[in-house]
Amino acid sequence: MAPPAYSDLGKQARDVFNKGYHFGLWKLDVKTKTNSGVEFSTSGHSNQDTGKVFGSLETKYKVKEYGLNFSEKWNTDNTLTSEVSVENQLVKGLKVSFDGMFVPHTGYVAPFGYAISYKYRRKVPEDTAANTTFVLSYRSKTGRFKTAYSHDRVRVDADFNVDLSGPLVNASGVAGYQGWLAGYQVAFDSQKSKITANNFALGYSAGDFVLHTNVNDGREFGGLIYQRCNDRLETAVQLSWASGSNATKFGMAAKYDLDKDASVRAKVNNQSQIGLGYQQKLRDGITLTLSTLVDGKNFNAGGHKIGVALELEA
To answer: Could you report the per-residue pLDDT of 163-177, keeping only the tens digit for each?
Structure first.
């Protein structure tokens, strides 16, 4: 099995800390899939403090026989992002993609822009659904090329943005051997001829137990521990220390499945912030999540937050 990407190291522990919590938000997610294979995802949330509403619409389509993936996402900030990728076609294990942030034809002309247009038509037998056609044409604001290569022992990722004044290059690699994982990540600003990120990671994964440590820019040190105690209980511990400010962060989190349709979550950190969550599957395709954040240091002062999320899938 190929090692994970550098950004996914320690993901099991981070999921225990982050998933199922929506503090200060009213949130709605809707997902559906058509008979032709096009996936639609709609998400929206309202901030309880500011009242600001944000929404997005995302579409995905896969052409499995050619390893092609198309995706587009629009949000209420009137920003459109698009990605085209091809996987396992040039070389087995290699994925090449291009994504860009676009402005629809509304009269806006970016300082640096270029036009991209592509058309895809999917033919199906006449006795089934109608043919599917995608036609996209936008003026690009920014773009980025990405590559990823996976092997049984190695995972390598690289990307750079399209900038004539000098691209920003990001690269990372992870090697695995008998459960041990070692990774390195670097970012290079060619315009300034300067390394802007220099990170190392070392970890161990043994099924129900995951240990992850990292050093970012030689100044921030962190560690994550994930343990699945049994089929119902997952636990995680997080620790970080910054040499510059001498700030230390510590947290513990747990998730417990009450049954196949309900689960509870809890987490606490060294700032006495306590997070609680409850998730219930109401019926097939409908899931309700409730969460709250309690400030233990200022319990009587108020300012605690709640979150409500509803997920619909069909």
So the answer is: 777 889 999 999 999
